[in-house]
Design a protein that fits this description.
Elements (H helix, E strand, L loop, with lengths): L1 E10 L12 E7 L2 E4 L10 E9 L10 E9 L6 E10 L4 E2 L6 E4 L12 E9 L36 E4 L10 H6 L20 H33 L34 E2 L39 E11 L12 E7 L2 E4 L10 E9 L7 E8 L7 E9 L16 E6 L6 E14 L9 E2 L9 H4 L3 E4 L3 E12 L12 E7 L2 E4 L11 E11 L5 E11 L2 E11 L4 E3 L8 E4 L21 E9 L28 E11 L5 E3 L2 E3 L2 E7 L2 E4 L10 E10 L5 E8 L16 E9 L8 E12 L2 E16 L2 H8 L7 H4 L4 H20 L7 H7 L9 H29 L4 H16 L4 H16 L22 H7 L10 H32 L7 H20 L2 H12 L12 H7 L10
Parallel strand pairs: 4-10, 7-9, 15-20, 28-30
Antiparallel strand pairs: 1-4, 1-9, 2-3, 2-5, 5-6, 8-9, 11-39, 12-15, 12-19, 13-14, 13-16, 16-17, 18-19, 21-35, 22-25, 22-30, 23-24, 23-26, 26-27, 29-30, 31-36, 31-40, 32-33, 34-35, 34-37, 37-38, 39-40
Helix pairs in contact: 8-12, 10-13
Amino acid sequence: MKLVVEVVDAHDLMPKDGQGSASPFVQVDFGNQLSRTRTVHKNLNPIWNQKLVFHFDKATSHHHQSIDISVYNERRPVSGRNFLGRVRIPCSNIVKKGEEVYQTFQLEKKWFSSFVKGEIGLKVYLSTESDLNSPPPLPPPSQPPQSTPSNIPNSSPSEATKPEVSVVSPPKAVSEDPETEISTVSVIETSSSNISRRSATVAEEEKEAVAEEEKETIKETLQAETNQEAFKNQAQQQPALFVGKRPEGVLLTMHQHVNPQGHQQNDYELKEANPQLGERWPTGGGGGYGGSGWMSGGERFTTTYDLVEQMFYLYVRVVKAKDLPLGPITGSCDPYAEVKLGNYKGRTKHFEKKMNPEWNQVFAFSKDRVQSSVLEVFVKDREMVGRDDYIGKVVFDLNEVPTRVPPDSPLAPQWYRLEERRGGAKVKGEIMLAVWMGTQADEAFPDSWHADAAFVQGEGVSSVRSKVYVSPKLWYLRVNVIEAQDVVPNDKSRMPEVFVKAQVGNQVLKTKTCPTPTMNPLWNEDLVFVAAEPFEEQLVLTVEDRVHPSRDDVLGKISLPLNNFEKRLDHRPVHSTWFNLEKFGFGVMEADRRKEHKFSSRIHVRVCLEGGYHVLDESTLYISDQRPTARQLWKQPVGILEVGILGAQGLLPMKMKDGRGSTDAYVIAKYGQKWVRTRTILDAFGPKWNEQYTWEVYDPCTVITLGVFDNCHLGIQKPGTGATRDSRIGKVRIRLSTLEGHKRYTHSYPLLVLHPSGVKKMGELQLAIRFTSLSLAHMIYIYGHPLLPKMHYLHPFTVNQVDNLRYQAMNIVAVRLGRAEPPLRKEVVEYMLDVDSHMWSMRRSKANFFRIMSLISGGISMSRWLGDVCNWKNPITSVLVHILFLILIWYPELILPTVFLYLFLIGLWNYRSRPRHPPHMDTKLSWAEAVHPDELDEEFDTFPSSKPNDAVRMRYDRLRSVAGRIQSVVGDLATQGERFESLLSWRDPRATSLFVVFCFCAAVVLYVTPFKVAALVAGLYMLRHPKFRSKLPSVPSNFFKRLPARTDSLL
């Protein structure tokens, strides 16, 4: 692979030659590979349009590496250079060829005293050697100067000449290991016949300049590598968890079985759990199966799966067989293998008429369910009629089975001679097998056949396995319909009343009808759609004439593929384009001209794919990802989230199977673009998954959502009796900002679901969670920046647009995930994304109202206290308040520092009673315990209403629609008030720590600074000129919007 840095242009550089100009060139450093562009003389807005190519090893991790791009001014006649600015681009933001876009970067300072201004335009992407046509080598300093006249205006990258290419060879290693080269990704070097040769003559002064540049660059590179190593070590140093071995005979349980009937109030609360996490592997010398010695040597610990309980499995890999005998009757062999352990049996697929079959299937048997000390593997010949013929078998003693601990290499399979049914004599044929003891950390675990899923058939086999899904990459498609020309109506006797209809997939939007009937209408309206990669739909533009309120005539139509549109990362304008509309003749006399295209009119539009927005596919209250669509704009992760899904307790039966209740539960976890699905535990009310997953965290003020569902697609239901939708069991939401760093949380969360009969506890979900912060400085930096990408504030959408686009994005995600194998059903995706969170509910309205009342109650209590002081109900208190009032009157400069010091002391005092566990669903806060049946009937009513009376239905739906908006406003007001409370409540320990430290620093500064000076500075800052204001929210506003509220605990 090759890394291509296309240096396009720069704007508004700092003059450095003493004559109001500069002679800039660009130097790029990537992994000790240096390359530079040519020098553009006497131009503060240079255009290079030059490609610099570097070697990029895909086998090496470049996650924490960056590309250093520096701009210098070349001094003449004395050799040297002046620093004009630099840019550092993380390697994690690099995209593949075809996804690159032109992007401008603000030049940064190298030192505090540097004077830097301007910006540089770049394209950075990865490409294969075959994609690079004819790359010339690095231009030498002695190359003749190629200047660009300063009076030439700035041109776009598309108007510039064909870019030049410079290739940089990678540094050679001291020693090369041929075996290592075989295991890594090979790089095929290609050459071109028209590669230009490097000039042999170099001026002496240019040699000195290049040597000086290399020394400075090497020094910067060493410093960068040191910082990267420190960052890497910091990320890898996580606290190890060592839990002592449990006593023999004690099951891996955390709670006693919860009685699903007769729920009391404490059943709705969060419960502490004490599972055996990160358990040590047994040691010893040759103990028997199930004893204390499966391994020889020292102790081994599991580090990847340290948030789950270890579950031991017996793995049997059936690879293939050879030299099998022919059947005595049929004269052929249709072999299959059968693995038997006690009462559990597993079968491979059979092959017809094949003496040397290859199965390559893995079977897993849980150690807790093993009731035999012998493993038998049979090879049989399938018969169409009668019993299958026996060919041979292999028997294993479980006491002799070895144990494998990842990351050890997989156990090599061996050939075994088949034996007769009663043992002893050998028969013709051999089978290749591998048998070992392992845990769920084994790489064979996800795709193995489990003994507890033996009766699953057909498509249900894939639906019981654990899978990881990735949401499709979503873009906002902005279509700016400007105008149309030469619109000819079908009825020539009237002027057309024209509007434009745009369609992308199932999304249809229309512009307003042009107010003046004309053949050259003007709209200038923006239509925004949601599109997903890969782009399968097309943009269809239709120009229609409003002939009658119930009739529209199509005057022209055009279909445009989405891949042809420009991808925009910021608010810079894109080029508009005229398109000819296609019109077909379908008259009686024009039957032979139906296939002819008539270009009778054209339309003027401006279309682009917005990469600077985050496409919202979930509610902003429970958002799990805030990154923009374009990968080039992503920042480095600030932490790592690890979630261990341990198990569930006390699940209720969800369906009937063989005359009794049954539940086949699985868990879905969603954070960011990554969805995970655990395997389905069949027919169990206390399933144990013990699966661990990891996510990169780019913003701590996000929420992870976990849902438990009952699998109704196992392929074993009888026709007409099986459910077609996976039933929801419950959901858990956890806000990451409420978790302390490097701390492990192990709790049992109640699974609460609201039914038409009231709130119901469906069981408990046991989780182990740990949030690891990588950089404290980066975390503080995040808390002062906007919650969403800057394009949401520079060019915001309306409230209706946000709701409609979110609904469309949710549909696209549901459709794409439903095409996976196994599919994530639409009902599962909708429940995880809270698609119905905006619907009207009297219960939610009451909950939001009482949230506001609880906030106002503090002010009411304060007013009562002041009334008691004025009424001298407590003389001592009244005297102290009067003395404090007189002191503040005489010394007004003590007011602000006293307030901040008081807040600082309150924060320290509340630290003792800070929350010790993540939030959970609160039935009292949700107003779910005392809800009226009529209100529940209204909440579960369909939309539109199913009431019989049409007039009542219309008024009822209108009331619900208006009340839904009021409910959202009331909820937002309650959220803002609860964020004030969370400043000192330690619900978000990082935010409260920052605020407490700020209060202390503010108190110290304001104690020292005269009050008049502080008031003057604050007043001038509040009244500053709009020129000194930013369109983005201020730091206090960003900090406040990141504070947690109690919305996470609402049902």
